[in-house]
Every structure is written in C-alpha cells, then in structure tokens.
Amino acid sequence: CSGGHFRLQLEDGTVAEARAVVAATGARYRKLDLPDYARFEGAGVYYAATAMEAQLCADRAVVVVGGGNSAGQAAVYMSRFAAHVHILVRSEGLAATMSSYLIDRIMASDAITLHPFSEVCALSGDTHLEGLAWRDRRSGEETRIEAGALFVMIGAQPCSDWLQGCANLDEAGFILTGDGCSPFETSRPGLFAVGDVRSGSVKRVASGVGEGSVVIQAVHRFIERQKTDAMGCGNN
Ligand SMILES: Cc1cc2nc3c(=O)[nH]c(=O)nc-3n(C[C@H](O)[C@H](O)[C@H](O)COP(=O)(O)OP(=O)(O)OC[C@H]3O[C@@H](n4cnc5c(N)ncnc54)[C@H](O)[C@@H]3O)c2cc1C
To answer: What is the reported pTM?
Structure first.
C-alpha cells in the first residue's frame, strides 16, 4: 500500500493493482474446541439468537456461553421462549464484561441461571444437539443436562491480517474507518472497509449489504478527486 496505489497478491500468485480497495473480508466467529462441535453447528450450536433459533428450541433448556453484551442479550431474549437459560462463563462473573442493565435483568430473572467458573466439556445428540455437559473449573464437577441449543457468544476474529499494516485497526483487529471523506474510508486514503471486518459495524447481513452499496459512491468520488488532484472532500 505504498506509492499511491495498492497491490493485492492473490492465492494463485496473481497480483492485482488498484487505485482504491474495499475490504469486505468479514470475521470468523470464535468456536469452542470440543469433539463433534462442527457436526452440531447449525443443528443446535448457534452464533445468533433470533426469532428463528427461538422457534427451534422453544420450551427446551438452552445454554449461552460468554460474558459479553451479546451473550447477555441472547440470554435475556431466549428466556422468553426457552424452558430455562443457563449462562456459562469461565471467570467469576459478568461485572467486568457486561453492561449493568443486562446483569440486572439476568439476576432478576427466574428463567436464567449464571454458572461462573464453568466451561462446556461435551455435546451429545444424533442429528441435532440434544444435551451437553459443563465442568466447574474449580472443583472439576460435571453437570449434564438435556438442551435444545448452545449459543456460542465468545466474540469474533476479524479477517484483517492480509492488510499487513496498511490501515489502523482497533485493539481487537477490526478496521477503523471514518478518517477520510467517507464513514467507510480508513486511515489510508483509497482503502475502504465495510461489513463485519469494519470496527463498530452492526454485524448483520442487511448492514453489510447496505454499507457495501453506499461505499461505491465514495470510491468513485475518491477516484475523481485523484484525477483532478482536488484537495478536501468536496460536497460529500
Ligand atoms: C452462524 C451465523 C449466523 C448468522 N445469522 C445471521 C442472521 O440470521 N441474520 C443476520 O443479519 N446476520 C447473521 N449473521 C451475521 C452475518 O452473516 C454477517 O453480518 C455478514 O455475513 C457479514 O457480511 P460480510 O460481507 O461483512 O462478511 P462475510 O459474509 O463474512 O464475508 C467475508 C468474505 O471474505 C472472504 N475472505 C476473508 N478473508 C479473505 C482474504 N484474505 N482474501 C479473500 N477473501 C477473504 C471470506 O471467505 C468471506 O467469503 C450470522 C453469522 C453467523 C456466523
């Protein structure tokens, strides 16, 4: 990304050159390292708690892994549909990682139980998740329950390694934007980022698609500015 243009090396060795680049490489959702985990992804192991998952596990116990706000929101939402919601965290509690309004709602709910110092150790089921076990990290004691769903809410790893220092990233590695003439331009003029890989983006399909369509106008404006050597952002 030096010399006023970009060079992208592709997997087959081809090099593409461009005056502007839009990064839309998304993020990999962190997973649990468990036997049979992949078999149950989409069949009881989920990364989002929406109306669809709520329907699939209505009136069954569900387990949420994670101590951040996404986990808290999933637990509170699922408590409206599930027989019971168990939240598992490896640490001693939620105070350091979750907003207090969510902690208050979780603590006030009879339908949600928090299990500190706990981690999932086994999954069971045939074609769909039917049960799981977790282990208390202090005592080693195992608890087995029948469960219709496991929500894994332990963050995402942005696919931004390939940028190799071309743009500023936040502390988790998501690409920072808003530095240039567009909300999607990065610290490097001509390099834009949209979707899940962008720091602060809403991690949903509709917002990724929306950002992807809006950014193209900013790319055109950037190229026009370069052609005319214009300074400033014009009427953006
Ligand atoms: C299991 C699951 C369920 C979800 N359910 C919903 C839902 O119900 N509703 C909703 O709105 N959202 C949902 N989401 C979130 C949604 O999928 C994302 O917000 C959306 O896909 C983000 O789009 P994106 O284009 O930014 O990234 P992605 O869809 O992740 O696409 C990024 C692409 O870039 C490619 N890539 C990565 N690195 C490189 C590289 N170095 N070179 C070339 N290519 C690269 C990847 O292979 C991938 O094809 C879900 C996500 C998951 C994981």
So the answer is: 0.77
